[in-house]
Design a protein that fits this description.
By secondary structure, this protein is an alpha+beta fold. The protein is built from 19 helices and 27 strands. Helix 1 (9-20) crosses helix 3 (35-43) and helix 2 crosses helix 3.
Length: 700
């Protein structure tokens, strides 16, 4: 954005008079005009002559050019301050923002929710949204300077009172304040997006700004039904990730407000109910200029900040593209698995990749939807260089599958190592209540299933990553009852707008699936919106869709003439592999059998049925392996259970509880069924582990 539009003269003049504390009658007296004339200017019924405008500029303490361009307010020394909302007059109390408790204060959840919101607000559809996560640790004079800019002394008494309570939020505040005092360091996390719409709209009316800064549970989406979010909860993760409940905002608008687009700045604080000096406060507070409208007396509103203030608040933006910067003050990862700067940096990268790898891939006809980067600083100096999130590096086989689809390079069935198979999966969209005919089952939408052989480095496989809309990962589905000999694979399911197609069925499928998602947007299942908005049978259509995905995956994954080499040696979910070398503490190498694939299910009898595919190194002697089934319980040793059945395949045989594999066999498959009579607890209450032991000597 290179310029800003002039605001209409009347609203601009009215605001300048309020900011200056001058009435219409006073201006009229200074000009020698009637009050009615000034009123006509402000309401837009008339506009003064140029010579009168020059007089107005002089009275307001500015120049004529400012009245002509009207892209900025007349400079006044309005003080920034924190406005705390008074407590409810009926005695009601909130001990924290309820919306913030809908999600964990986890960096992965934050990355998912905040980036989804950025994608939903893409401004130029021909360009990707660019998001940049910056971790910045402050200490010493850098910390002191920041706290001065944010008016920390003004907040201290409120923090102390809010931290004195016994509720969860109060205890968390107490710990955060104590750590700030003892460590004299503070972690900031800034999330910048570019090529997004920015926080447009009025201060208090409907719009993006009010939905984020002033309201709770307002999902103000304007992307024609393409939005990923729908509950208005995601923005609360910004405040939940702050140990102090404090977020500062700097937005560049895609459309002018008050004649301006750049550096719309505001702060919002979420505290629990508390009292101070005999006054009770509801908890929320805003940082800004005092509103000069008499009806909004004592309210803090956003202001058009200068570059010095933006820099002092660590809210600098690199250019004038539309978008928003959110600064989370006192950022932390509540899961506890990311505490150091390096760990938090890595988790941001990993979370962005896991949630949005598909949105970062472009194809033959269109570029990617998203570009994501992470940088880490300490007192203004780079400590971990900017890292661009590369989907092909983090999810190589999944990225290969989607890339092939976007480039038109898929095949109907797999016959070679790195091919990508493409098949259609029907989804029947139930009619909305009141719109369908009697016995109308619904409209068919053909989703796209992509399947490709898993790479050797894949730690997880035999899964299907499902998505719609802007290609954010929604769910991960593991097909059941895979046949023996199924190759390890990775799958991608594209539905709705993620297919890249247009049409009524696409629109209907997108809305239908979005209605079946909970606030976390992590599965397609029963929701209140689904059952109340759609005709009876909607949940059954969702279940049928998932079953159809499994069925098609089984068909595509059956080995034909595909050629594969190597295999992952990591352990999989329900099975562990141990050899004498491993159990004696020596490092495991590829000279021992490794797990290539497994599937397991719990039968109606309570028995576990597990099928294991082993990859074996070349050997001159037969392999003698002993599968041992155990229950993986929460505490104590893992109790051993007996097999009721142990069966080999054409590549091996079962004898006296052992699996024997002849020399030269590189892949062996066996099936075992546990004996429920030996289960210490019901099979459904424990996870099965299978240790495959190699007796000393290892040969039959």
């Amino acid at each position: 954005m290179t310029g800003q539009q002039a605001e209409a003269f009347g609203p601009w003049l009215g605001r300048q008079l309020r900011r200056a504390g001058m009435s219409q009658a006073q201006l009229a007296g200074e000009l020698g005009k009637t009050r009615a004339a000034v009123s006509a200017w402000i309401t837009g019924r008339a506009e003064p002559r140029e010579d009168v405008k020059a007089q107005i500029a002089h009275i307001l303490g500015t120049d004529l050019a400012s009245l002509v361009t009207r892209t900025a307010d007349v400079p006044l020394t309005l003080p920034l301050f924190w406005q705390h909302r008074p407590a409810h007059s009926d005695g009601g109390r909130e001990y924290g923002n309820v919306a913030a408790f809908a999600f964990d204060a986890d960096l992965s959840v934050l990355a998912r929710e905040a980036t989804q919101n950025s994608l939903d607000e893409r401004f130029d559809p021909q360009q990707p949204v660019r998001v940049h996560y910056t971790l910045h640790e402050l200490s010493g004079e850098h910390l002191d300077a920041f706290l001065t800019f944010v008016h920390w002394e003004e907040l201290s008494a409120h923090y102390e009172q809010a931290a004195a309570g016994t509720q969860k939020v109060s205890r968390g505040l107490r710990a955060a304040l104590d750590e700030l005092t003892s460590s004299r360091s503070l972690l900031l996390l800034r999330i910048d997006d570019y090529n997004a719409c920015g926080l447009t709209g009025p201060e208090y009316g409907d719009g993006r700004y009010a939905a984020v800064v002033r309201r709770t549970l307002d999902s103000h989406k304007s992307q024609g039904g393409r939005a990923g979010g729908s509950y208005g909860l995601g923005k609360a993760t910004l405040w939940a990730t702050s140990r102090f409940g404090l977020v500062l905002v700097n937005s560049t608008l895609s459309e002018p407000h008050e004649g301006r687009t750049q550096r719309r700045v505001v702060g919002r604080l979420d505290l629990p109910w508390h009292t101070l000096d005999g006054e009770a406060y509801a908890g929320p507070a805003w940082f800004g200029e005092p509103d000069t409208d008499p009806e909004r007396k004592d309210v803090a509103r956003s202001w058009w900040a200068d570059e010095r203030t933006v820099h002092g608040l660590h809210l600098d933006r690199t250019n004038d593209e539309p978008g928003t910067s959110f600064l989370i003050v006192g950022a932390h990862d509540a899961s506890g698995d990311a505490e150091t700067l390096q760990e938090m940096h890595d988790k941001c990268v990993r979370s962005l990749s896991d949630g949005f790898w598909a949105a970062m891939i472009g194809g033959r006809d269109a570029g990617p939807l998203l570009d994501a980067r992470v940088t880490t600083l300490r007192n203004g100096q780079v400590v971990i260089a900017e890292e661009r999130v590369d989907p092909h590096a983090h999810h190589a086989s999944l990225s290969r599958a989607l890339q092939a689809y976007l480039d038109g390079g898929t095949v109907p069935e797999l016959t070679a190592g790195d091919q990508v198979a493409n098949a259609e999966v029907p989804l029947i969209v139930t009619p909305l209540k009141g719109t369908g005919r009697a016995r109308d089952k619904g409209r068919e939408h053909l989703a796209v299933l992509l399947l490709t052989p898993a790479d050797d480095a894949d730690e997880r496989f035999n899964r299907i990553v499902c998505m719609r809309g802007n290609r954010m990962t929604i769910a991960e589905q593991r097909p059941r009852d895979l046949p023996l000999g199924t190759m390890p694979f990775q799958g991608v399911l594209l539905a709705g707008y993620a297919t890249g197609r247009t049409g009524e069925d696409v629109d209907l499928a997108e809305a239908f699936l979005r209605a079946s998602e909970p606030p976390e947007h992590d599965r397609w299942d029963r929701t209140e919106e689904l059952t109340t908005s759609y005709e009876r049978g909607a949940l059954s259509r969702i279940k049928e869709f998932r079953q159809s995905i499994d069925k098609m995956a089984r068909a595509l994954a059956v080995r034909r003439e595909a050629t594969r080499t190597g295999g992952p040696s990591v352990l999989r979910e329900l099975l562990t592999l141990e050899t004498d070398a491993a159990s004696s503490g020596r490092g495991r190498t590829h000279s021992f059998p490794t797990v290539r694939n497994l599937s397991a299910r719990l039968e109606e009898t309570g028995a576990w049925n597990v099928t294991v595919t082993l990859r074996l190194p070349d050997a001159d002697d037969p392999w003698l392996l002993r599968p041992v089934a155990k229950f993986d319980v929460r505490s104590g040793g893992r109790p051993t259970i007996e097999w009721s059945l142990l069966v080999g395949s054409e590549s091996c045989r079962a004898e006296d509880g052992h699996i024997i594999v002849e020399p030269g066999v590189r892949t062996a498959v066996f099936t075992g069924v546990t004996d429920p009579a030996t289960h210490p607890v019901k099979g459904a209450f424990a996870r099965l582990a299978v240790d495959i032991l190699q007796p000393r000597g290892g040969a039959a």
